[in-house]
Amino acid sequence: MKQREEAPVADFTEQYPRFPQDKRGEYLILVPDMLPWHFGLLTSVLKREGYRMEVLKNEGRAVIDEGLKHVHNDTCFPALCVIGQYLDALKSGKYDLDRTAVLITQTGGGCRASNYLSLIRKAMKAEFPQVPVLSLNFSGLERGNGLKMKLSTLLRLAYAIFYGDLIMTCFNQTKPYELQRGACEAVRDDCLAEIGEALAGKGYRKLKRNADRILGAFAAIPVSGGKKIKVGIVGEIYVKYSPLGNSHLEDFLLSEGCEPVVPALMDFILYCVANNLNDAEFYGKRNAATPLFGVAYRFLLHLQKKVIRRMEAQGRYEPLHGFKLLRARADEVLSQGVKMGEGWLIPAEMALLAETGTENIVCAQPFGCLPNHIVGKGAMRTVKTLYPNANIVPVDYDPSATRVNQENRIKLMLANARERAEAQDVPV
Amino acid sequence: MAKLLGIDVGSTTVKTCVLDEDFSVLHTSYVRHFSRVRECVLEEIEKVRTMSETYRVAITGSAGLGLAERGKIPFVQEVQAAYAAIRKRYPDADAAVELGGEDAKIIFLTGGTEQRMNGSCAGGTGAFIDQMATLLDCTVDEMDKLSLSAERIYPIASRCGVFAKSDIQPLLNQGAKKSDIAASIFRAVVDQTVSGLAQGRRIKGTVLFLGGPLYFLQGLRKAFRETLSLDEDHAIFPDDAPCFMAYGAAMSAITSREEKFEDIAARIAAARDGSAITVGKPLFASKQEYSDFIERHRRSDLAFENIFRYEGEAYLGVDSGSTTTKLMLITPDDKILYSHYQTNNGQPLEIVANKLRELYSLMGERIVIRGACVTGYGEDMLRAALKLDFGIVETMAHFKAALHFNPDVDFIIDIGGQDIKCFKVKNRAIDSIMLNEACSSGCGSFIQTFAKAMGMEIEPFSRLGLFAQHPVELGSRCTVFMNSSVKQAQKEGASIEDISAGLSSSIVKNAIYKVIRARTPEELGEHIVVQGGTFLNDAVLRSFELETGKNVVRPAIAGLMGAFGAALYAKENTKKDVLISSIITEAELKTFSYSSRSVNCKGCTSHCSVNILTFSDGRRYLSGNKCERGAGMKVTEDPLDLYRYKYRELLALPDPARGGGRGTVGLPLQLVMYEQLPLWTEFFETCGFRVVLSEKSSRELYFKGQHTVASDTACYPAKLMHGHIESLLDANVDFIFYPCESYNLDEHDSVNHYNCPVVAYYPELLKANNERLNDGNLVMPYLDPNDEKSTVRNLGRALKRYKLPAALIRKAYRAGLARMEAFHAAVVEEGKRVMAEAKARGRHCVVLAGRPYHADPEINHGIDKLLCSLGLAVLSEDAVFEEGRQVKVNVLNQWTYHARLYRAAELCARREDLDLVQLVSFGCGIDAITTDEVRAILERSGKLYTQIKIDEINNLGVVKIRLRSLLAAIEEQKRMREDV
């Protein structure tokens, strides 16, 4: 092993504005529209810590163009969307530029996504040098420029994600069948508002009550009978969830008469936690935090079980899948050692979806995404061998890839799906 | 009885088909729509109006989607339409390949039905073939005929037109035969289909070939038959192939509603565009604004001198560009006597020789050429053939010319046919050079190709854009992407005017934001000179001024600046006592002719394809060679080349006499193995295995594994790995060892020490996509080389069947690590020797900085040799990085190999005898992060940054220009320093 050298350090870093934690209340923190189902709830929680946040909803060509100016051709599309959204918003004149900051997540993994932060910082330096960039991470990166959180806040965030997943799942399972247009949206907004309040105040831990409230509200929506073709969405985290990233994929699938099946965000969180445990097991990489990850893992699994139990008790909705099952599916396709980007989670989700009756799958990835070479296109052959009925289409998202191109490929997948449904005599 | 009507609207054509209720064909048609989709469909269906009162109709095809949606006509996805038609008409087919205008598809019918379409970044389609024909200056039919008489195949990238162009242009310029190139283009299309679409699944059995190109082009058919080894019985080319999808659509129309013809036609006629496209501002608000603009630019003209009257000396400049050839003759006071600009039609030598003949007759005895200089792609060849006095790298030529127009110039941008070049100028010297990368070169020739596709010449086409009211936003990326943006705009009903203006603005945005990578227009500078043929297009010039918000200087000779600069150079550098140029004389020209042939050099394992031009006076000129040996010269001195050293030493590591008691292990020499070969060789030999290396990388090896490549946008080193695995499987080793490593060695200079995802997990992809691999013959443990305990345990588990004692594994692993360290130390030592020797010989050193696997000659394409031939000594990043200081950078520094880059750059930044050239693999997402950082480190101390993007393409011509520009600029800077 090479030894640490005590050499002088050449510092090439540029100065950037720090976020004044003591004046956090004076700042408005802009949040990219990464997780439309969850970020609203997360900001409710962070309000308790004194952070004022706004989830951006701006879209359109101007957003993409701003991104194009600041992001290298070969850099991922999500980085481009996020940066574009910030700049477009900051240029709108709606914000007090001296009292605005922007927030980005970092996982600290081996894919380049953890470098979004430095890309954003470069873009800000060029256009809005006074705007600080904050990091939301749990890997100890960017000390001093991260959100400061109490343990109890972390707990609230975990609950927020579970509730977000539950609302998303109920919505997706109801929306294709609603009789009165807009009924689902109304219930969704009610639930988000109500749960948001609970998360900001009291009662968020009453999981049974809250879950039943959500389940009941959606179940009360009048629906048509029959079954529509289910289409699963897996892929890189941003383009999987963000309508800006995936050209409103969920809406497109709904308009094609399908039922979108979007796996839970908590699975991604659990995947990140499990990777830390795997590292300890595979390579003996243990440190002070390792036992904490163990505790967190068990605690989240416990909560997940409770949510699943509520869904089963209610009976109307196909429950979320247990995370252990997901890990078991991963092992059939590849090793859980593949932990960069969305890693083994993507093939695991594809396998589990195929196994549980959602054989039609869109694998969404940013063009040229490195981990997806392995876990997306690279793993599809194995998934199809294991589940011969799996009907998977990989779709690349890119600032210049047109919707026609993307939708045409999805339509091909849907045509196959319909044909199979007819062959099996399932009404479409 | 209602008839069935199928309409297939592709990216370039409209096909229709009318069927009886029993599916017998009554009518088919096939026409190009030239983007007038709706009108064209109406014209075509009008022809069948009288065939039936009522119809059932369905639309298919990529450009038909919007029409179907707005006309409320049933739509059937085109692959699905083809699938239905195939099952009806050719029930015995096993697979079908369909090439369309911009799509390529494969349908597997037996052994698991599967339907695939090309991804968003894939050439190898009809549009690609069209583009290539334009490049060869012939029609597609002519290209087809030519291809049938081909004698050899050149490797050409077909992944996208831009790549293929950069492969083809040098071939043309070197005088390769058009027929060979034509056949190579078709072969490239086949390769693209096999690797990009089949992805691990073999195309075999009875194969059906569909779509326009495969119907019309014999050469393409031949290439498919040969590559897939299909005989006449198993390769079926249906007579109605072009209309096959329309046939399928008509079949599926059986479920459509029966309607009157008039109703259908009326709905299509009414299907006007939505407003899904984004539009920008017009280029000119008024005619007045336009005439002011014209007036302002007229000021930057050169004076002319009458060649029929002038007497005295003159200087000639020749610019042999990639697509055009330019000549200019000037007087000593810089007046133009003569100039010429034309597309070179792949015959630059022919053209220049002819123009010289013309010049001689114009000049008579009155004018004497005292000096002549050539620049551009064809520089070496023309200089040798026509005996010109000087040759300079084109960046210098352009710089010289720009200085003439504005001595204060601080920024020059040149957009040519397929290059974009930008220079920043400080203190009258080039400060930094930016050239377009292979993937963002949507340059001038794109407009030309597109104009042709619309059936127009480039000039009237771009003039149309000047007064467009709603220029379309087309994005700023490579041509393939722009093509689909254009398709979308057409679908939405944008006019040709709006598209023309949109294209001009795309080119400009591409240049500013992608090539120059400017964040704001202010970064460009105050005094901007624009040049290159593309800027003669007023729409492009105006777009540039609008985007930058600055008035710029465009010389009237914008397209001739290279030639002008060369002429200036000749004037400045002709010595006083030289009274007449060495250029070929009028008498010699009368009998001048040449012939060309190509051979494979056998000087070394590179097997360069060398082109030999033989001139009528017996002289020869060789090109395409990477080193002196290829040019028939003896290599006189030991090259100062660390890349060569590393590669040679790596290959020598396995000892065939050692080990073997326990069996044989295959190590694929690619990706991580380029770093860890010493470790694993020693490990396995100590454990009693004989180590077998995979075959040396080559294009042939790549093709061997191509059918298992799952993701065609992965980097070339990764894609080559598939061939290495095949070669080891063929070598019958007991097992292949290839570990998965999330973590690389911790060299304590970065926050974390990851491998990139591709290096880390490629074995998983190989196992999933190569059916010959299984748990038995591919041993791929997950290891963290930093942790001995878990590594020994995991190796033991992976090699369980050999029952190796843990103590042996530990001992062998330690020995392996020691061997790796010794190997590294030897590389560092050799690096020091090279540096010392370079100093002694007065050579400048270049650190060719990339990844360990860039030492592979197939990956670096012999760039190290090229550097040596330019008189430089070559070092590698791993040999020098430890001399660099620890660095703090702005990005998250968390990959081992990349941390080395930063430190190597830090070293070069403060050493006068060192410069850095960064090698970047195409598709390397992580280098998208590192390149800006390395550039910043170098530029902070005034060093030039040069980046070379490499892929499977082997085009040293462009690389050479970059490197020579770098050298010229280094020289220039040195001179400036000495002057001060």
Q: What general outline of chain B do the C-alpha atoms trace?
A: globular
Contiguous helical run count of chain B: 35
How much of the residues of chain A is beta strand, in percent?
Answer: 5-15%
Assembly state: heterodimer
Q: How much helix is in the residues of chain A?
A: 40-55%
| Mean pLDDT level of chain A | 90
Helix content of chain B: 40-55%
Give a verbal description of the structure.
- The complex is a heterodimer of chains A (428) and B (980).
- Chain A is α/β, with parallel strands linked by helices and 428 residues long.
- Among the domains of chain A are: 17-149, Rossmann fold (3-Layer(aba) Sandwich); 227-264 and 320-423, Rossmann fold.
- Chain A contains 15 helices and 9 strands.
- In chain A, helix 5 (151-174) runs parallel beside helix 7 (207-219) and helix 7 (207-219) packs across helix 11.
- The termini of chain A are far apart.
- Chain B has 980 residues and is of the alpha/beta class.
- Chain B has 35 helices and 31 strands.
- Chain B has a 5-stranded mixed sheet with strand order 3-2-1-4-10.
- The longest helix of chain B is centred in the last third of the chain and has 36 residues, at 806-841.
- The radius of gyration of chain B is 30 Å and the shape is globular.
- The N and C termini of chain B lie far apart (92 Å).
- The chains are: A alpha/beta (428), B alpha/beta (980).
- Chains A and B meet through strand 1, helix 2, helix 4, helix 10 and helix 14 of A and helix 3, helix 18, helix 19, helix 27 and helix 28 of B.
